């Protein structure tokens, strides 16, 4: 029985990645358009998107890449990164995570199920790890409740600023920040403070 072996070019066609990850094919798109009463995606777009916000010019997008080409491009970009030695640290220091924590919390395969290997599952695992951490701290300290970490120091500082602003009895919009705060933390505070109309003053406690 003769076998038709596809060539490498046939196996690696640029549309394969889109077909595999986007979903509907031409026939399915046509069927959905018939249900909503339109002949094409452009006609559907014209019917639901106001003309005032549409650009007449085509999108300035490059030609699509195959999966192999995309991976090669990403590796080339990543190869430009420079791994430098950290001296001062600016809040980032080398740490050691015990293997038992690494295996059972950070790398727990339960967070990457075959059904939903997405960020939602990973976040669910992180939330469970934080709940376990909170319970451990409460048990060790005897307190009724305990807080948990946020994503990073800068995010925690921004949340603290928001909490201070919303809960303070003072009507002042000025927030004092110690000048020893890491620069990346201070930059995020400034970013969050601007839309909230909070004025940051940076200095020493004696200047507060």
UniProtKB/TrEMBL annotation:
It is an enzyme of class 1 (oxidoreductase). Residues 19-199 form the Glycine cleavage system P-protein N-terminal domain. Keywords: Oxidoreductase, Pyridoxal phosphate. InterPro entries: GcvPA (IPR023010), GDC-P_N (IPR049315), PyrdxlP-dep_Trfase (IPR015424), PyrdxlP-dep_Trfase_major (IPR015421). GO terms for biological process: nucleoside metabolic process. GO terms for molecular function: glycine dehydrogenase (decarboxylating) activity. It comes from the Bacteria. Its EC number is 1.4.4.2. The keyword rRNA processing does not apply. It holds the Pfam family GDC-P. This is Glycine dehydrogenase (Aminomethyl-transferring).
């Amino acid at each position: 029985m003769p076998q038709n072996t596809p060539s490498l070019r046939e196996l690696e066609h640029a549309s394969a990645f889109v077909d595999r990850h986007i979903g509907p094919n031409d026939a399915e798109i046509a069927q959905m358009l018939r249900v909503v009463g339109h002949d094409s995606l452009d006609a559907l777009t014209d019917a639901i998107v106001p003309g005032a916000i549409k650009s007449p010019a085509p999108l300035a997008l490059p030609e699509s890449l195959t999966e192999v080409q995309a991976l090669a491009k990403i590796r080339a970009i990543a190869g430009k990164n420079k791994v430098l030695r950290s001296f001062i640290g600016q809040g980032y220091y080398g740490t050691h995570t015990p293997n038992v924590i690494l295996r059972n919390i950070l790398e727990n395969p339960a967070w990457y199920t075959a059904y939903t290997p997405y960020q939602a599952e990973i976040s669910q695992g992180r939330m469970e790890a934080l709940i376990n951490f909170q319970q451990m701290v409460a048990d060790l300290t005897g307190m009724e409740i305990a807080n948990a970490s946020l994503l990073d120091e800068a995010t925690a500082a921004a949340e603290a600023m928001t909490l201070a602003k919303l809960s303070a009895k003072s009507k002042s919009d000025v927030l004092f920040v110690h000048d020893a705060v890491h620069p990346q933390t201070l930059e995020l505070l400034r970013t969050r403070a601007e839309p909230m109309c909070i004025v940051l003053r940076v200095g020493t406690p004696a200047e507060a």
